[in-house]
Amino acid sequence: MIELICENLEKRFINKLIFKGVTFSLKKGDSLAITGRNGSGKSTLIKIIANLIKATSGKITFRINNKEILKEDFIRFIGFCAPYFNLYEELTAYENLELFMKLKCEGESVKEKINNLLNKVNLYHCRNNPVREYSTGMKQKLKLAFALINEPLLLLLDEPQSNLDFEGIELINNIIEEQNNRGILILASNEIWEPTLFNITLNIENFK
């Protein structure tokens, strides 16, 4: 059993209100699309859920098998992809994943898992090239691979379609469908997505 509960989340930067009263609950198989215009607070909400920044007020509860997970342990169960996620451009795609995986996935077969991830995002053929040589779309695919390293129970995607071509969008659709079978998905975007991929939609502009 997986459950995420957000209660009355509010965020202010100094005296500027970003949003208030954001409340929802999700369980395994649920997929939430956070919509709204650029600058409306979608990324801020995603970062709060990922425990990257703090809410001004409100509460987030994440439970697995009825056991509440401490915020400092969220990273073990969360996958996160965003355009502002930084890669080590002097390293290869393989080396980037290897470095992070050794920190996050102890005791697993690193080489096999990395190769499977690179195949999944169609980057295996250039796995030994420095990331600085990648196009922006290829870098975005590598960021998606990072989000899937630990087969997350909660997958957070912030504008994942950024710089992707049609093949890349199909990749995201496949990832969404897989995550719907594995756990919980939250996606923030101002793009129009296939509505059958999501069973819940939240327009952040309704919480001003």
What does this structure look like?
This protein is α/β, with parallel strands linked by helices and 208 residues long. Helices cover 29% and strands 27% of the residues. It contains 5 helices and 9 strands; from the N terminus they run βββαβββαααβαββ. The chain has helices spanning 42-49, 93-104, 110-120, 136-147, 166-182, and strands at 2-13, 16-27, 31-35, 57-64, 67-68, 78-81, 154-158, 184-188, 200-203. The strands form 2 sheets. Strands 6-7-8-3-9 form a 5-stranded parallel β-sheet, sandwiched between helices. Helix 5 (166-182) links the parallel strand 7 (154-158) and strand 8 (184-188). Helix 2 packs across helix 3. It starts with a strand and ends in a 5-residue tail after the last strand.
Helices, strands, pairings?
Elements: E1 2-13, E2 16-27, E3 31-35, H1 42-49, E4 57-64, E5 67-68, E6 78-81, H2 93-104, H3 110-120, H4 136-147, E7 154-158, H5 166-182, E8 184-188, E9 200-203
Parallel strand pairs: 3-8, 3-9, 6-7, 7-8
Antiparallel strand pairs: 1-2, 1-4, 4-5
